[in-house]
Amino acid sequence: MKTDYAMDEVQKKTNSFLGVSDLTDNKLIWRQLVAELVGTFLLVAIGVASCITINAGSSPQTTSIAICFGLLVGSIVLLEIFICIDDNKI
């Protein structure tokens, strides 16, 4: 019986070390993961879209790309503040 107890302790330490307990103990993990996925998708999709040119002669300026990324991050922060998408704070 002593060996089973020691094995349970090793398993608990292993689960806490690997972060399994973070996934199983947190009840809002799926909501947080979806919010992270949507935010990352918006940042990458809109950010990359600001770098694409339709005509060869009209390439986007560095300033317009920077403004696009800045407005996007600002709008995500406003969504975070006013709608409370996630329980975590920035």
TrEMBL record:
Subcellular location: Membrane
Keyword Cytoplasm tagged: no
Domain of life according to the entry: Eukaryota
Keyword Oxidoreductase: no
Coiled coil: none
Entry-linked InterPro entries: Aquaporin-like (IPR023271), MIP (IPR000425)
Cellular-component GO terms for this entry: membrane
Annotated membrane topology: Multi-pass membrane protein
Membrane-spanning parts: 33-57, 63-85
Keywords: Membrane, Transmembrane, Transmembrane helix
GO molecular function: channel activity
Protein name per Swiss-Prot or TrEMBL: Drip protein
Gene source species: Operophtera brumata (Winter moth)
